[in-house]
Amino acid sequence: MAAPILQAEIDINAPVSKVWELVADLKKMSQWSPQCRVMKPLGTLRPGTRTINLNRRGPLFWPTTCRITEFVPEQKLGFRVNENNTVWTYELEPTEAGTRLVETRHAENGTSAVSNFLVGKFMGGVPSFEQELIEGMNASLQRIKAAAEK
User: Fold this and answer.
1) For the segment 116-128, what is each residue's pLDDT rounded down to a tens digit?
2) What is the H or E stretch that residue 122 is in?
3) Is the pLDDT of residue 112 over 70?
4) 34 and 140 in contact (C-beta within 8 Å)?
5) 35 Cβ partners below 8 Å, 6+ apart?
6) What pTM was computed for the model?
7) What digits encode the pLDDT tens for the residues 38-65?
8) From CA 80, how far away is CA 82, in angstroms rounded?
9) Which domains are delineated in the chain?
10) I want to staple 89 with a disulfide (CB 3.0 to 4.6 A). Which of 12, 54, 78, 148 is the partner?
């Protein structure tokens, strides 16, 4: 069963090239995301590149791995989280004032049974966790906006 698409967007008063520079530097993901503590790419960013990540929520820490699924400079960056089958994308679109940045989480085939169990058992259940993810996406976009507009 497909999970709902989670999405947030923001308009940034900075050129696409500046916003892309921030988004495509995955080592900075921990500065943007409330949950991500480390995202380390294993090689040059391109489709197929893997990352090793460490996430945190309160006292809980958990590792994940990702694979870059899309890499179109100054347009789109996407990665699949191997442990739960979700795909996260950042899409950049030029606007009159700068850039519209859209962050999306897709789970076309649903999330894994293990992920659903762990979210249900330790993270308050899927609906509240998904709401928390949307809040985190909005926080991430606000942080990227602040850095880009500096």
Assistant:
1) 677 777 677 777 7
2) helix 113-122
3) no
4) yes
5) 55, 56, 57, 136
6) 0.90
7) 999 999 999 999 999 999 988 989 999 9
8) 6
9) 6-148 (3.30.530.20)
10) 78
